From TrEMBL:
The lineage of its organism: Bacteria, Pseudomonadati, Bacteroidota, Cytophagia, Cytophagales. This is Arylsulfatase A. The keyword Hydrolase applies. It comes from Algoriphagus locisalis. Residues 366-519 form the N-sulphoglucosamine sulphohydrolase C-terminal domain. The keyword GTP-binding does not apply. Pfam families: Phosphodiest (PF01663), SGSH_C (PF16347). PANTHER family: N-ACETYLGLUCOSAMINE-6-SULFATASE FAMILY MEMBER, N-SULPHOGLUCOSAMINE SULPHOHYDROLASE.
């Protein structure tokens, strides 16, 4: 009897153990791989799944064809490193502390890769992070130092120290990614891979193979290329993002420094010629010869045309030069995304893999006469987002819901069946991805930009954005409110804040904005804390980074001392 009981007991244990093991194996099999592809400053206007006026991106578009295109995705703070911090932490800038590009990321923050790694995911990151420190929670990483370089870039690596790799950055980051998938990925673990491009970040150096094609193309100008900012307040007028007056002739538009001297063109800042030497100066002899072949011609044509160019002609010329180089770098991104998708298909990795393509924010491609980002206006507030998950997300679907970079962390944790920490501030996108749209209730998002005074001089502002309106407060060395009617004024040219017809809407939005600030824990005290940190640091350095109009900056410091 004892013997029988004993065998039943151990038999049950064995069954139990078997059951657990099966459950565990099933759970592991169910847990999806995650490939997070992000480019730097890639505007949705330059992805053909959104709009093919400027460029065809057939490979990036494949992700939308396999899955979902989000037409209303946005960021909480439109600048590089803060966006990355929000993605990793699932928290707004004022909570994770990474409010601007200046101070390093606080690594005591908990990030979703750390949580996934603890839960048994194999994790890797290749490309641009831009944090001022190395990422936590990664089994493998090879990242660019700071902004990184387009040609023959340096990398900070987890296991090989600092290395320099010969070649073009977008190809190299992809080579590293494919090498990891092929040689380091473990078949018995789900993986989370962050594949992060530097392109199409300034100063926009296309790969050798694309230079000739793109320097010979002409692109359609945006309707607001010659915006005079009437209808908006000081923030738009005082920003330094104009293609003609704020873009570097040499570093950005690739006018050779000696041609600038010959034509008597003064640089837009001390950095103008330096940026050219810093980037083009890295090329080896062969790369430089290929570069010169195309760009010498650009310079020769420019030399002939310049003496008779009007200011309008110059603006148009700079727009074309900007688009040729910016879009040229995107061509290589698209080709390389294609290489990764091909690899996944060829190796049966498509089925249970979430594939994301996004950017750390949007970008102005000449709209409002601008380049760069920072403002809550659409081109920089919105960001591309394409997500595939074959079998789970309906192919070719679309969502116009207001999703944000704040939502990635909780989405990935939910997909992996892990409960997110309660202090994360986003929402899982799974209901939208799997068609349970009634579970999605968000009707407004919050935005807060901080980095001022700084390069491009975009004033500090916070905002509430609904599908119909934007209510924006520019503060610090100004106190201006802006109300945009998104449906009636899609190009965002007119502030209707003082229009009596909007009095009720304005009052309602103010109330909603207060509620949102309370919900996310933002306040004027926190805003002041970040102003003090920033100005203390600037004062310590006794210098100022990047502004052309130093009178504004001097005034800020005078007022501060007078307080
Ligand atoms: Ca960026």
């Amino acid at each position: 009897m004892k013997h029988i009981l004993k065998s039943i007991f151990f038999g049950s244990l064995a069954i139990l153990a078997f059951a657990c093991k099966t459950e565990e194996a099933e759970k592991t099999a169910e847990r999806p791989n995650i490939i997070f592809i992000m480019s730097d400053d890639h505007a949705y206007q330059a992805i053909s799944a959104y709009d093919n006026t400027l460029i065809e991106t057939p490979n990036i578009d494949r992700i939308a064809k396999m899955g979902m295109l989000f037409t209303n995705a946005s960021v909480t703070n439109s600048i590089c490193a803060p966006s990355r911090a929000t993605i990793l932490t699932g928290k707004h800038s004022h909570i994770n502390g990474k409010v601007d590009n200046h101070f390093p990321f606080d690594t005591t923050n908990v990030t979703f890769p750390q949580i996934l790694q603890d839960a048994g995911y194999q994790t890797a990151m290749f490309g641009k992070l831009h944090f001022g420190n190395s990422p936590k929670g990664f089994d493998q990483f090879k990242i660019l130092p700071g902004q990184g370089a387009y040609y023959n870039p340096d990398f900070i690596t987890k296991n090989e120290g600092n290395i320099k790799v010969e070649g073009y950055v977008t190809d190299i980051i992809t080579d590293m990614t494919l090498d990891w998938l092929q040689n380091e990925r473990k078949a018995d673990q789900p993986f989370m891979l962050m594949y992060l491009h530097k392109a199409p970040h300034r100063e926009w150096l296309p790969a050798e193979r694309h230079i000739d094609e793109f320097t010979n193309r002409t692109f359609k100008e945006p309707a607001t290329l010659f915006d005079d900012y009437s209808g908006r307040g000081r923030a738009a007028h005082e920003a330094e993002m104009n293609l003609l007056t704020d873009m570097h002739w040499s570093g950005d538009s690739k006018v050779y420094p000696e041609v600038m001297d010959e034509l008597g063109i003064e640089g837009t800042s001390d950095w103008d010629k330096g940026a050219f030497d810093r980037e083009v100066g890295r090329m080896n002899a062969e790369q430089r010869a290929n570069w010169d072949k195309a760009y010498m011609k650009v310079n020769e044509d420019f030399k002939k045309a310049y003496p008779t160019m009007t200011e309008e002609d110059k603006m148009k010329w700079r727009y074309q030069r900007y688009m040729q180089d910016y879009l040229g770098t995107i061509k290589a991104v698209d080709e390389n995304v294609g290489r990764v998708l091909d690899y996944l298909e060829a190796n049966d990795l498509m089925e249970n893999t979430i594939i994301v393509y996004t950017s750390d924010q949007g970008f102005y491609l000449g709209e409002h006469g601008w380049f760069d980002k920072r403002f809550v206006y659409n081109e920089s507030f919105k960001t591309p987002l394409l997500m595939a998950w074959p079998g789970k997300v309906k192919a070719g679907s679309k969502s116009d819901e207001m999703v944000q970079n704040l939502d990635f962390a909780q989405t990935f944790l939910a997909a992996a069946g892990i409960e997110a920490p309660s202090d994360m501030q986003g929402e899982s996108l799974l209901p939208l991805l799997t068609g349970e749209t009634d579970k999605w209730t968000r009707d407004a998002v919050y935005y807060h930009y901080y980095e001022y005074p700084s390069v491009h001089m975009v004033k500090r502002h916070y905002a509430i954005i609904t599908k119909e309106y934007k209510l924006v407060h520019y503060y610090f060395d100004t106190d201006e409110w802006e109300l945009i009617d998104r449906n009636k004024d899609p190009m965002e040219l007119t502030n209707v804040y003082d229009d009596p017809a909007y009095a009720e809407i304005r009052a309602d939005l103010h109330k909603q904005l207060d509620d949102l600030r309370e919900k996310y824990g933002d306040s004027s005290e926190l805003s002041q804390k970040y102003i003090d940190m920033y100005l203390d640091d600037l004062a310590d350095r006794k210098g100022f980074f990047g502004a052309k109009d130093t009178t504004l900056v001097n005034k800020i410091f005078e007022n501060r001392e007078g307080k």
